[in-house]
Amino acid sequence: MNIDQILTLVVLVCVVAALIWDKVRSDVVALSGAAVLLMTGVVRPVEVQGAFASPAILALASLFVIAYALELSGLLDLAIAAAVKMCKRMGAAGLWMLLAAIGCFSCFLNSTPIVVLGAPVVRDVANALKLSPKRYLMPLSYITVLTGCCTLIGTSTNLLVDDMARVAGQPRFGMFEITPVGLPIALVGGLFLFLFSGRLMGRALTDAPIEPRAVDVPMRGAQVGDASLFAEPRPFQPAKAAAAAAIFVGAIAVAALNIAPIAASAFAGAVLLILLRVITADQAYGGLRPQILILIAGMVVIGIAMEESGLAGAATSALVGSLHDFSPLVALIILYALTMILTELLSNATVAVLVTPIAVALAESLGVSPRPFLVAVMMAGSAAFATPFGYQTNVIVYQMGGYRYMDFLRVGLPLNLVTFVVAIIAIERFFPF
């Protein structure tokens, strides 16, 4: 190993250890690693600049602004109020329909503000119907994650894998290219939660009702950000709501029709919202949620260092050597399992940066298309169900619902296995080697 590879490996190990230790904010950890790599010359300033200006960062930042404009217009509060009326008429069935509706929003909007908005509603409606909120809060988090896998912009994981694959010379993914895989996962996962999550939680559902209280989101990993931005009730403003919704739909349509990349269409939409005075510039900055953006950018710098130093190639060679005698399907299964285990321990951004270059090189060494391997990383990189800390939405409902750690393991581990099987079948069917 040369000096650059050794330095990159040391930084990578320290960053991963700090993220697992979880005593320092994850965005600070990622920035510290990037700073060390820059100061030691492993990466150049232009490469760091490129990481912070990557299409994934631009798309996410723009989508955050658009989502915040929808929130400020009162449109989401209006939708929630209508859902509450439906739940009071239909009882438990209405609550499940509410979860499904929230999941549909999560196909196109970041799941964290959706869960911050929806979790208190689900809790209060369940209490009003004399049902255990625990029966519905954990499925709420899981469903938003599952449906986020249905489109390219549903999760930051998908955008980041797409960006890292582009760096590795692969063509970009279309808006709905992964839908044939994500949709079966979401449907089967949702059905599993409907049928079995209550039984798997067992005694946890017999606890006393959860009293309404403010959403106090833990700071773990600094991935959730300032929940107060999304928790405050907003008066409905029809004109602004219509403009924000139209611009959001337009940005999605432009990207879906391949007229422009999602980074370009979302950025144009965010700027248009400011020009039309649907949202002020200061409000737009307030909705950016820089913790997540900086975390991703810092991890992209580490990914670039792995590529430039040759560390990713060395790791790939070792993995390819161990999988050389296996078929592409077996290699795909092993890669999915490895990614799924890592994402329970680390942030999805970290996993996407670490595994995406390996997935591309592994596919090329086997002489097959990298596409199925990249889709596997997207799906497994978000499949953090077995721990309350694997995904930021899990953290929110974990604290609000008063769950125990083992509650997530009882429900999330079987859900991981079910979605694993469905994902492999769907990937093999729709993304041939």
Brief write-up:
With 433 residues, this protein is mainly α.
Please tell me about this protein's structure.
- By secondary structure, the chain is an all-alpha fold.
- Helix content is 74%, strand content 0%.
- The chain contains 21 helices and no strands.
- The model is unreliable at 211-230 (pLDDT under 50).
The total of beta strands comes to 0
- Give Rg in angstroms: 21 Å
Shape: globular
Query: Roughly how much helix do the residues carry, as a percent range?
Result: over 70%
Structural class: mainly alpha
Q: Note the total helix count.
A: 21
Contiguous uncertain segments of 5+ residues: 211-230
Task: Write down the overall mean pLDDT.
Answer: 83
Give the H and E element order: HHHHHHHHHHHHHHHHHHHHH
Ends distance: 33 Å
Largest sheet: none
Q: What is the subunit organization of this protein?
A: single chain
Strand proportion: under 5%
